[in-house]
Protein backbone atom coordinates (compact mmCIF):
# COMPACT_ATOMS: atom_id res chain seq x y z
CA UNK A 1 0.00 0.00 0.00
CA UNK A 2 1.46 3.34 -0.95
CA UNK A 3 2.07 6.20 1.50
CA UNK A 4 -0.61 8.52 0.05
CA UNK A 5 -3.35 5.91 0.26
CA UNK A 6 -2.43 5.15 3.86
CA UNK A 7 -2.47 8.88 4.67
CA UNK A 8 -6.01 9.24 3.24
CA UNK A 9 -7.27 6.18 5.14
CA UNK A 10 -5.83 7.46 8.42
CA UNK A 11 -7.20 10.97 7.73
CA UNK A 12 -10.68 9.49 7.01
CA UNK A 13 -10.72 7.48 10.24
CA UNK A 14 -9.28 10.27 12.41
CA UNK A 15 -11.70 12.89 11.11
CA UNK A 16 -14.71 10.62 11.67
CA UNK A 17 -13.54 9.77 15.21
CA UNK A 18 -12.78 13.40 16.13
CA UNK A 19 -16.15 14.50 14.75
CA UNK A 20 -18.31 11.90 16.49
CA UNK A 21 -16.40 11.56 19.77
CA UNK A 22 -15.49 15.21 20.41
CA UNK A 23 -16.98 17.83 18.10
CA UNK A 24 -20.56 16.55 17.99
CA UNK A 25 -20.71 17.17 21.75
CA UNK A 26 -19.53 20.78 21.73
CA UNK A 27 -22.79 22.70 21.05
CA UNK A 28 -21.12 26.10 21.36
CA UNK A 29 -23.80 28.73 22.14
CA UNK A 30 -26.35 25.92 22.20
CA UNK A 31 -26.28 24.94 18.53
CA UNK A 32 -22.84 25.41 16.94
CA UNK A 33 -20.68 22.43 16.04
CA UNK A 34 -17.73 22.61 13.67
CA UNK A 35 -18.06 19.94 11.00
CA UNK A 36 -14.39 19.35 10.26
CA UNK A 37 -14.87 15.90 8.75
CA UNK A 38 -15.35 17.57 5.36
CA UNK A 39 -11.62 18.34 5.41
CA UNK A 40 -11.27 14.84 3.98
CA UNK A 41 -13.28 15.85 0.90
CA UNK A 42 -11.38 19.13 0.59
CA UNK A 43 -7.97 17.42 0.61
CA UNK A 44 -8.58 14.48 -1.72
CA UNK A 45 -6.33 14.81 -4.80
CA UNK A 46 -8.10 16.26 -7.84
CA UNK A 47 -7.08 13.39 -10.11
CA UNK A 48 -8.90 10.74 -8.04
CA UNK A 49 -11.47 8.50 -9.77
CA UNK A 50 -14.73 10.50 -9.68
CA UNK A 51 -17.03 7.53 -9.06
CA UNK A 52 -14.85 6.20 -6.26
CA UNK A 53 -14.67 9.69 -4.76
CA UNK A 54 -18.47 9.99 -4.71
CA UNK A 55 -18.81 6.59 -3.01
CA UNK A 56 -16.13 7.40 -0.42
CA UNK A 57 -17.70 10.80 0.27
CA UNK A 58 -21.09 9.15 0.71
CA UNK A 59 -19.52 6.63 3.12
CA UNK A 60 -17.86 9.46 5.08
CA UNK A 61 -21.23 11.12 5.59
CA UNK A 62 -22.90 7.78 6.29
CA UNK A 63 -20.44 7.00 9.11
CA UNK A 64 -21.14 10.42 10.64
CA UNK A 65 -24.89 9.75 10.29
CA UNK A 66 -24.61 6.32 11.91
CA UNK A 67 -22.71 7.64 14.92
CA UNK A 68 -24.84 10.80 15.15
CA UNK A 69 -28.22 9.13 14.48
CA UNK A 70 -28.97 11.84 11.93
CA UNK A 71 -30.85 9.89 9.27
CA UNK A 72 -28.69 10.42 6.20
CA UNK A 73 -28.34 14.21 6.08
CA UNK A 74 -24.55 14.12 6.36
CA UNK A 75 -24.30 11.45 3.65
CA UNK A 76 -26.41 13.60 1.33
CA UNK A 77 -24.44 16.78 2.07
CA UNK A 78 -21.08 15.01 1.57
CA UNK A 79 -22.22 13.49 -1.71
CA UNK A 80 -23.42 16.89 -2.96
CA UNK A 81 -20.12 18.65 -2.21
CA UNK A 82 -18.13 15.76 -3.68
CA UNK A 83 -20.24 16.01 -6.84
CA UNK A 84 -19.97 19.80 -7.10
CA UNK A 85 -16.28 19.99 -6.10
CA UNK A 86 -14.93 20.04 -9.70
CA UNK A 87 -17.11 23.07 -10.47
CA UNK A 88 -15.89 24.87 -7.33
CA UNK A 89 -12.27 23.95 -8.09
CA UNK A 90 -12.59 25.20 -11.68
CA UNK A 91 -14.22 28.42 -10.50
CA UNK A 92 -11.66 29.17 -7.80
CA UNK A 93 -8.44 27.90 -9.37
CA UNK A 94 -9.05 28.16 -13.13
CA UNK A 95 -6.08 26.95 -15.18
CA UNK A 96 -4.34 25.42 -12.17
CA UNK A 97 -7.31 23.07 -11.87
CA UNK A 98 -7.42 22.39 -15.62
CA UNK A 99 -3.78 21.30 -15.56
CA UNK A 100 -4.33 19.40 -12.29
CA UNK A 101 -1.60 21.30 -10.46
CA UNK A 102 -3.74 22.42 -7.51
CA UNK A 103 -2.31 21.54 -4.09
CA UNK A 104 -4.18 23.15 -1.22
CA UNK A 105 -1.03 23.51 0.89
CA UNK A 106 0.77 25.50 -1.84
CA UNK A 107 -1.98 28.08 -2.39
CA UNK A 108 -2.29 31.60 -1.12
CA UNK A 109 -4.63 32.31 1.76
CA UNK A 110 -7.23 34.02 -0.45
CA UNK A 111 -7.71 31.06 -2.79
CA UNK A 112 -7.70 28.57 0.08
CA UNK A 113 -10.21 30.72 2.00
CA UNK A 114 -12.55 31.00 -1.00
CA UNK A 115 -12.40 27.25 -1.73
CA UNK A 116 -13.04 26.26 1.89
CA UNK A 117 -15.80 28.86 2.28
CA UNK A 118 -17.70 27.76 -0.84
CA UNK A 119 -17.46 24.06 0.02
CA UNK A 120 -18.49 24.59 3.65
CA UNK A 121 -21.41 26.84 2.72
CA UNK A 122 -22.73 24.37 0.14
CA UNK A 123 -22.33 21.49 2.60
CA UNK A 124 -24.10 23.35 5.40
CA UNK A 125 -26.96 24.64 3.25
CA UNK A 126 -27.71 21.08 2.12
CA UNK A 127 -27.19 19.67 5.62
CA UNK A 128 -29.47 22.09 7.47
CA UNK A 129 -32.09 22.22 4.70
CA UNK A 130 -32.45 18.45 4.93
CA UNK A 131 -32.19 18.38 8.73
CA UNK A 132 -34.91 21.00 9.29
CA UNK A 133 -36.80 20.22 6.03
CA UNK A 134 -39.43 22.89 6.47
CA UNK A 135 -39.53 25.96 4.25
CA UNK A 136 -41.39 27.93 6.91
CA UNK A 137 -38.20 27.69 9.00
CA UNK A 138 -36.00 29.26 6.32
CA UNK A 139 -34.62 31.84 8.78
CA UNK A 140 -33.55 29.06 11.16
CA UNK A 141 -31.89 27.22 8.25
CA UNK A 142 -30.05 30.38 7.22
CA UNK A 143 -29.04 31.21 10.81
CA UNK A 144 -27.66 27.72 11.45
CA UNK A 145 -25.95 27.70 8.06
CA UNK A 146 -24.33 31.08 8.55
CA UNK A 147 -23.06 30.68 12.11
CA UNK A 148 -22.06 27.03 11.85
CA UNK A 149 -20.31 27.77 8.55
CA UNK A 150 -18.32 30.61 10.12
CA UNK A 151 -17.29 28.33 13.00
CA UNK A 152 -16.42 25.45 10.66
CA UNK A 153 -14.46 27.71 8.27
CA UNK A 154 -12.32 29.14 11.08
CA UNK A 155 -11.58 25.73 12.60
CA UNK A 156 -10.94 24.17 9.17
CA UNK A 157 -8.51 26.91 8.12
CA UNK A 158 -6.66 26.58 11.43
CA UNK A 159 -6.36 22.82 10.94
CA UNK A 160 -5.17 23.29 7.34
CA UNK A 161 -2.49 25.73 8.54
CA UNK A 162 -1.34 23.19 11.12
CA UNK A 163 -1.31 20.38 8.55
CA UNK A 164 0.61 22.57 6.12
CA UNK A 165 3.34 23.14 8.70
CA UNK A 166 3.70 19.39 9.16
CA UNK A 167 4.14 18.85 5.42
CA UNK A 168 6.90 21.49 5.07
Automatic annotation (TrEMBL):
Membrane-spanning parts: 12-29, 35-64, 71-93, 113-133, 145-163
Key words, A-Z: Cell membrane, Cell shape, Membrane, Transmembrane, Transmembrane helix
Protein's cellular compartments: Cell membrane
Cellular compartments per GO CC: plasma membrane
GO biological process, alphabetically ordered: regulation of cell shape
Membrane association type: Multi-pass membrane protein
Principal location: membrane
Family according to the record: Belongs to the MreD family.
Family matches, as NCBIfam families: shape_MreD
Protein name per Swiss-Prot or TrEMBL: Rod shape-determining protein MreD
